Amino acid sequence: MDLHALIRAEAPVAEQQRALTEPVLTALVDHGVHRLIAPKRYGGAELGLPQWSREVQELSRSDASTGWTAMTTTISSSLAWYLPTDAADEVFGDPRALIAGTAAPLGKAVETDGGYRVTGRWGWGSAVTHASWVIGGTLTPVGPRLAVYPREDVTIHDTWHAAGLRATSSHEFSLTNAFLPSRRAVWPIGIAPGIEGPITVFPYFSFLAVGVASVCLGVARRAIDEIEALAVEKVPQYATSRLAEQTGVQIELALMEARLSSATAFLHETLSAAWDAALTGAAAADPVKARLRLACSFASGEATDVTQKAFAAGGGSSVFESSALQRCLRDAHVAAQHTVVSRRMLETYSMLKLGLAPDMTRF
C-alpha cells in the first residue's frame, strides 16, 4: 500500500489508541522519514529544509499526528550533525532507531566524573514512547545543553490526553540521577559541529517553527480537500441545492484557497532565502531570521483559520468522528498553540524593524 494511503487508513485507529499504529511506524522507518534531514553517515537523506517542509506538509495532509511525529523525530535526528562523532555514532548508529524528546532545559545537572548526574521532567515528548534515545534539554554548570539519554534511563508518564494531535504520544517523561557523559551533551549554536553541512549554518531554533508551520499548512490543505469533496455531495437540510452550487460556499472556498496558498508561498519564499544563505556558508542575519519566524507564525495562524472555515462550511456533517474535518479542526488548533509560532513572534519582527533591539537568542 502507498505510504499516504496507509497513513489515512490507520489514522482513526491511531486516534483511538493515542499512538501511531505499528504498520505506520514501520512504514515511516522503512521510507527513512525519521532521518530526512540527518547526515548520510547515519542513513539520512540530507534534504534541504524547503524540501523537508514540503514533505512534512504532505504527511500532515494525510494525518496531522503522523506529520507531527515525522517532523519532531527528524528535528531530533538533526542533532547527529552537532554531536561529537563518537557520541553521534553511539546514538545514531542504528539507522532504524527513532530519536525523540524536547529542547526545553528542564533537566538539572550536577558535575561528576566524566560528565553529569541529571534529574528532570519534561513535557511535550512527542513520539517518546517509540524512541531508542531521548533528548532532554539540560541545564549544566556550563550552560544549557541538548542532552541525549538512553530510553532505559527514562520514565514515561501517561499524560497526553489532548484535544488534538492525539496520536503523537506527546507524554511527559522524567529521569532521576541519570549519568550523562559529557560527549552526549551539546549546544548547537556557536560550536564546531561534528559533521559540517549547510544545516549547521541554518538557525537551529527555527527548525521547530518551520516544522510546526508545515504541519499546520498540511492540515489546512486536508481540510480544503475534505470540504471540496463534501460540497459536491451534500444538500443541506431544508436546502434544494448542493453546497457546491451555493454562492456563499463558492466564495468562502475561494478565499480559503487564496489565504492558504498565500501563507504557503510566504513560508516557502522566506525559508528558501534562509536556506540559500546557509548553502553559501553564511549565517542568517537577524532580519532574515525574524522574517522567517514571521512567516511561520503567519502560516500557522492562517492555516488554523482556514481549517475553522472549512469545518464551519461543512455544517452538521463536520461534527461526527467519521468526518476528517473535526479531526483537522482539533489538530490545527493544538499544533498552532505551540509557543514557537505564537503571536509574540509577530512582536519580535516589528521590534526589530523599528529598531527596538528584541531578544533573538532563541531565533
UniProtKB/TrEMBL annotation:
- Recorded source organism is Lentzea sokolovensis
Acyl-CoA dehydrogenase/oxidase N-terminal domain location is 14-74
State the PANTHER family in the record.
Answer: ACYL-COA DEHYDROGENASE, ACYL-COA DEHYDROGENASE YDBM-RELATED
- Name the source's superkingdom: Bacteria
The record's section on InterPro entries has: Acyl-CoA_DH_C, Acyl-CoA_Oxase/DH_mid-dom_sf, AcylCo_DH-like_C, AcylCoA_DH/ox_N, AcylCoA_DH/ox_N_sf, AcylCoA_DH/oxidase_NM_dom_sf
**Acyl-CoA dehydrogenase C-terminal domain sequence ranges:** 211-342
The protein's name in its UniProt record: Acyl-CoA dehydrogenase family protein
Pfam families according to UniProt: Acyl-CoA_dh_2, Acyl-CoA_dh_N
Q: Which UniProt keywords apply?
A: Oxidoreductase
